[in-house]
Here is the input.
Amino acid sequence: MSNLNQNHCVHHNKELTYFCESCEEPICKLCTTLGPHNYTLHRINSLQEAFKMRVEHIKQEILHNILPKRDEIFAQINRIEYRIQEIKYVKNIIERDCRAEMNGIEDRLNQAESMKQTILQHQISVIQQDLDEMNDLAIQFFNLTKKNDYLEFLFDSQSLLDRIEFLIAKPYNKGLDEIPDDLPRELTDLRLLLGKMEGQQQLLEILNEIIWRMINERKHEEELSQQILKRHSENEIKEWQKLVEFFTEQLKESEMICYFCNEPLDIKTINKTCKKNKDDIPDNCKKNYWIYN
Ligand SMILES: [Zn+2]
Ligand SMILES: [Zn+2]
Ligand SMILES: [Zn+2]
Here is the structure.
């Protein structure tokens, strides 16, 4: 019943056989003559034609607007996913490096500690012998006196006294041969180095500022007249060049390392393909990038 009604005009209860393009709704034949969609005032179309037009319109929208945008979004998702992998990859390299470094630091600390342990244990074992001899002497003395054998005691008493004299006179090491303060504190040393590095980073920023000013000044050069150039730019550029040379010298002291494998870089290896960075990342990403060390 409702289905039947849906396909029939609400005004005339006739079958919907036309489409009013002006009102964008299906209508019956009577609607076009009796209203409300009079054909002299409204643009009337056949159902089939209205259907075809809309199918074509939507098809064109999908083809020319939705599909390209869908492709863009798809490509963007791929780029994001690739970036996630990149971040993971670089993080793993850094993590591996951290772990190796930490293991090295721990090994060297353990080595230093066991060396100290060995030396102190040896110091104990040397004076432990003296202690043992003193205990032996006391035991022998009590055993001899317990027997009440005068002769035996008198035969041995001189040798007991000799041993006592020897033990009293014998020097022993009263010092402590090791201290804890010189255990290797590599992280502390690294932190100190980092402090120095920050100073160099500041130098780098000053250098960038100078270069930026020089570039701007060159732009000015072109814009300004020769007269202004003479009194304005040349001397300043010379001053800045001197500064750049000075800071470049300073920066040579900072070493550069490979972004991927942390190997030190020089003029020859910088921005070249990293040997250790094999197939995990496509060719265009294989270059080693430098950072200040
Ligand atoms: Zn009608
Ligand atoms: Zn109409
Ligand atoms: Zn490398």
Remarks:
- The chain is about 65% helix and 5% strand.
- Residues 2-68 form a domain with the Double Stranded RNA Binding Domain fold (CATH 3.30.160.60).
- The two ends are 82 Å apart (CA to CA).
- The pocket of zinc ion (ligand 3) is lined by residues 258, 260-261, 263, 274, 276, 288 (CB under 6 Å).
